[in-house]
Structure formats: C-alpha cells, structure tokens
Design goal:
Strand order of the largest sheet: 3-4-5-6-8-9-10-11
Number of helices: 4
Distance between the termini: 76 Å
Helix content: 10-25%
Largest sheet: 8 strands, antiparallel, barrel
Shape: globular
Length: 238
C-alpha cells in the first residue's frame, strides 16, 4: 500500500513539473522574462518573430507619425502679410530641408478691409556650423514660397473685361517668391528641455515674380525697389 501511494506521489510530481516547464516555455515565447538564477540575472529577449501584418502596421504608424509638425514659425513681413504664424516639418539626412505652412494678417491700410494670407514655403540650409555654448550658425538659407491673399479683389484668371491672356503674368491670386538669408540657433541642452529643442532667429531677403518683372521692364526700378527684408523666429519642438 505504501509503495502504491509513493508511486502516485512520484507520478503526480512528474506531471506537475512538466506542466510548469510547458507554461514557462509559452511565457518565454510571448514576452520578456527575467532569469532569477543566482549566477545570472539578465533580461532575455523573446523568440517571437513579427509577422507581415505587424510590420505593415508599424510602417503605417511610422508614416502617420511623419505628419506631426516639428516646428512653430513666426515671420514678420516677407510679402506674406504684416505677421505670419504657422507650423513646419524638417527632414533630410541632416534635417537640411523644411516645409512651412503659414497664415498671415494683412492690415487694411488704404483698402476697404484687412485680409488674410496663406503661404506654402520650402527652405533649404546646405551648411551648419556648430559653435561653443550650444550655438549653431547656418550661413546660408534659401528657398521659395507661394503666397495667396484671400479676397475677391485678387484673381487667378483675367476678368471678363480683359481679352484672354492679355495679362498672362500678372495674375494677382498667387505670388511666387525667392529668398536667401541666414540663421542663428540656440540648442537647449537635453537635460533642460521641457517643450522646445532649440530656438532659431533668422532673416531673409526676398522678391516676388511681379517685382522681378517690373525691374526687367522698367530700368528706373532699382534693386532696392524689388527686394524686401523679413525677420522670423522658429521654435523646434521635436
């Protein structure tokens, strides 16, 4: 009788041990676990491999993440309104490319009402010079932007009172601008960052297609008449 009871105990213990081992293996395949042995306490990675579905979901989330704005931009003047505010994205191997979407305010001045502007801007900074104290100089910034003014006073095709293509280059709805400038950036140390990564002050000298055309058509128009100066501030968030 004692031998029978002893055999049953041994058999039960063996099955319990096998069940524990199986459960441990399943946990190892599904998550990270700690090896609590006295000689080695390390984190062991899961052997579970990602599926095609997992990789596709990861790519889609990464692509959507690229749409998150990384910058806040403010700019004074520049043929885009008295003041403009907007968001921006930076990209490229060295973050040398930027795209900005800005909305500006144009006071009434001598017109009937104030107006709102919208600008799509592309920036390129070919060089960056890092200096002591967390400062960075970008000796050249250049690019182009397209600006429009909301209002019925501006048109993208000639009014009916003009023959077709009478003023092919004088459509007032959208202006194309070119600019060059410089930037100075203060990089915030990583241990002191809360909301911003860096702060950039910049200036730009720009001109639009209408001004350039006037200079070619009329010799009395000087270079100073077609160039404009603007200053701005960029807050790098990400």
């Amino acid at each position: 009788m004692k031998s029978l009871v002893f055999s049953l105990v041994i058999l039960f213990s063996t099955h319990a041990a096998l069940a524990c081992d199986t459960d441990s293996v399943s946990r190892r395949d599904s998550m990270l676990y700690l090896d609590n042995s006295p000689t080695q306490k390390v984190v062991i990675e899961s052997n579970t491999q990602s599926t095609r579905y997992d990789r596709r979901v990861h790519r889609r989330r990464q692509n959507w993440g690229e749409l998150i704005p990384t910058q806040l931009v403010m700019q004074y003047a520049g043929n885009m309104g008295l003041m403009s505010w907007g968001i921006g994205w930076d990209y490229g191997k060295h973050k040398q490319w930027e795209t900005n979407l800005l909305f500006g305010f144009l006071p009434r001045y001598h017109s009937r009402r104030a107006k709102m502007t919208m600008t799509l801007k592309e920036n390129f900074m070919p060089w960056s010079c890092y200096m002591k104290g967390g400062w960075m100089l970008e000796p050249l910034s250049c690019g182009l932007y397209f600006n429009t003014v909301f209002g019925s006073e501006f048109w993208d095709r000639e009014p009916e009172r003009y023959p077709d293509n009478y003023y092919p280059l004088l459509k007032t709805k959208v202006r194309t601008n070119l600019f060059i400038g410089q930037r100075m950036t203060k990089i915030i140390p990583a241990n002191r960052r809360k909301f911003l990564k860096s702060v950039t002050l910049f200036y730009e000298i720009s001109s639009c297609d209408l001004y350039v055309r006037s200079a070619f058509m009329d010799r009395k128009v000087s270079l100073g008449d077609i160039l404009g100066l603007s200053i701005g501030l960029k807050l790098q968030m990400l």
